[in-house]
Write a structure and sequence with these properties.
about 425 residues, alpha+beta, Pdz3 Domain, 2-enoyl-CoA Hydratase, Chain A, domain 1, 3 domains, globular
Amino acid sequence: MVKKLINKKVILVIFIIFAVASAGISIGRWTVNSVGAEGEIYEELKLFSEALSLVRKNYVEEVKPKELIYGSIKGMLGSLDPHSSFMTPEQYKEMQVDTKGEFGGVGIQIGIKDSMLTVIAPIEDTPAYKAGIKSGDKIIKINNDFTKDMSLQDAVSKMRGVPSSTVKITIIREGWKETRDFTITREVIKVKSVKSKTLEDGIGYIKINQFQEQTSSDLAQAMENMSQDNINSLVLDLRNNPGGLLNSAIDVSGQFLPSGKLVVFIKDKKGEKIEYRSNKNTANSTIPMVVLVNQGSASASEIVAGALKDWNRAVVIGTQTFGKGSVQSVVPLTDGSALRLTTAKYYTPKGISIQSTGITPDIVVKAEIKNGGKGRPVIREKDLERHLKNGEDIEEKPSEPEEIIPMEIDEKDDTQLQRAIDLLKTWKVFKELPKAS
């Protein structure tokens, strides 16, 4: 069965949760004939063949042909948008493991900013977090290998490994005069997809960290557990969720929409359209709800938020989302490697493309940094090198350089969550008001 993976949660980000938390991927197999290689392409391939032959004959050291071919494919995919890439057999296997929410590594989100490998954020309670790695750190070396021109996939592969083994990361941080080495012991990183609890006044709270294979069933279980507390409304928190599996996003949306509602549709370069609709699960299709989003809500998160907003099913609160509206197809190759290729754009039920623009909240509420807390700069799809344009004649403006979001925040200081709670309380009050006679 073809799987779709939509991917984030920056800077050149595919929001990598120390693996490939990608967004927008169908896994399938195409043949060379189906791609349609025209005669002119064969003419251009003569140039490649000539260069390959010259390298093999004259390069000062012996080079394996497969290494040259892999390097060529990486270069080809690397010249496209920031979400297209080549995966070696090992990297492809890692990607398949990542969607299950468990992998071995150090626990950081990484991206490319100003052509440098950059830490987006460490995941809480992981080896990188405990070692003191900070958002914005520039990774200069991994095990003494310089990261200049290193792809995200290669960086992920080098930092991942067997639990209890170590990896040395050389960091430069703003304000430092020289680099510092961090030797970090790898652990099994488990990303819990769904967290839930009951807040005041019967308000349920669900946080989805990433859209994985089990997210929909975990969400259903969380809703069932909270029903024991007789919740009367819900906050669905999608902030800093980099995306994940498209099918998971559709199933999650379907738990809050009536059966048969359009969740999202995609269109390829030929204009061919595929629609995805909600399933028959309508158990939670009437509960009052608020969806929380921010600039870290990407891809699959934006699909859920966009669907619930377009159908007036929930009030969306927060800040403009990341703006990743493209779909990547993962195409396995014959030797076990694979291409991650951007093949389509997705659209909300109202036909809106959010590529490079994002979802605009119904109520804009910015997160506040209080009590001397630390923040990190805002990065969105439109800030990435080689990003795809929206295609709807929408003017793009870079994110404001002074726009900062808190790295950590206490619930009592969470202005976005508190606004959601206040709205649901007000909702309940108005609903219970007696009608004028």
